[in-house]
Design a protein that fits this description.
119 residues, 80% helix
């Protein structure tokens, strides 16, 4: 059973590491996704990429996993509410996949946090 938890943790960390790298390699293209009410544009793309990669590392090495998972869940919810949901409401149904992906990843992050919660 421990092997399943380890494999699951690694598989769960992988998309965050890849998305984090993508934030660095495609920062200018992703800058347009930053909501207009947030100053800084591309700066936040880099910060987000760093946060995603840090979360992935935390999940793999099991250091500060509870905090990293909670913060990742919050980040995913922020993406859902500020990027994907407004796009879906605006009629862009192609954003529904991203909304559901980030919503699911946020739920998975909360589940991971529950495994590392200290009572």
């Amino acid at each position: 059973m421990k092997n399943l938890k380890t494999i699951g943790r690694y598989v769960f960390a992988m998309p965050f590491a890849i998305f984090g790298l993508m934030h660095f390699t495609n920062a200018s293209a992703m800058g347009g996704m930053v909501p207009s009410f947030v100053p800084g544009g591309v700066f936040w793309v880099y910060v987000t990429g760093l946060a995603l990669m840090a979360a992935a590392v935390s999940f793999v090495i099991e250091k500060h996993t509870y905090l990293a998972a909670l913060l990742t869940a919050v980040l995913m919810l922020v993406f859902v509410l500020t990027i994907h949901l407004p796009a879906v409401i605006g009629g862009n149904m192609m954003s529904m996949g991203s909304l559901l992906k980030d919503f699911g990843l946020g739920g998975g992050a909360l589940l991971l946090a529950s495994f590392y919660q200290e009572d």
